[in-house]
Request: fold
Amino acid sequence: MLPLAQPMMLHSSTPRRRGLNMGLLQGSSAGLLGGILGPIVTVWLAESFGWRTAFYATVIPGLVMAALVLKLVRDLRLRHPATVAMDAATPDVPAAGGPRAALRSRNVVVCLVIAVFYLTWFTTTQTFTPLYLAEVKGFAPGDLGFVLSGIGVAWVLWGAVVPGISDRFGRKPAMVGFSALAALSPLAIIGIDDPALLFAALVLTYTGLGCFTLFMATIPAETVPRAVMATALGLIMGVGEIVGGFVAPALAGRLSDTFGLDASMLISSGAAVVVVLLSLALVETAPAKRREPVG
Reply:
């Protein structure tokens, strides 16, 4: 759904709030509803009424969203001034042609590779952190849950802050700076033994989820014309999920079996460092930095 939802948000936003609004869509709201409230409500339903009821209950938000889309969403095929201006700003990419046309854009190719390594950072950390804290650190279940909630807090916080900062200072500096911070979060998991300090460290350094909106949606959407926008976003998200979300954790698991669980955290941190280097190759797209009208 995101390759469709993000263009809707893009063309509904003024240029000066484009990054922030797309961040609220993919980052903060997902973190708040999916990362914090969703698990609390679903577990409560399961404990009170059974898991079968809880699974059925998750259908309800989908039905509500479908009704809201039918009633409220405008048809993006109708051109309006913001769309025309954005298409005119991307003359190097054909307005049609599918994946091949989208891949002619340097930013799309760079973002696609970034997606592989950033999904490696994310899925490896998410997969192995509970195991690491339990087996290596010896955290009790209560402490483990408390520390992991720091990731949820960071998701909500940075999901909006990072894209908002990119609106003012540029997409490229935001990707470089906050990806460097994200490389520190797996190292904090290795080096910090106190649950409270580790919670605070994760809140401050788990900034990568704020960058997800930039490389998965905002930067490519500001690079290619409307006609190939959903294709470009789908390519980036799909390839990133397949390689970084499926292949990388399996490889990290095999290396952890051989060299210990520290290997998984080092792989995660190293993937974020690669993202920092790749981000240097991005072409800036923020309207404030390209002198695009921001009204």
Q: What stands out?
A: The chain is about 80% helix and 0% strand. The CA atoms of residues 40 and 65 lie 20 Å apart. Residues 2-284 form a domain with the Growth Hormone; Chain: A; fold (CATH 1.20.1250.20).
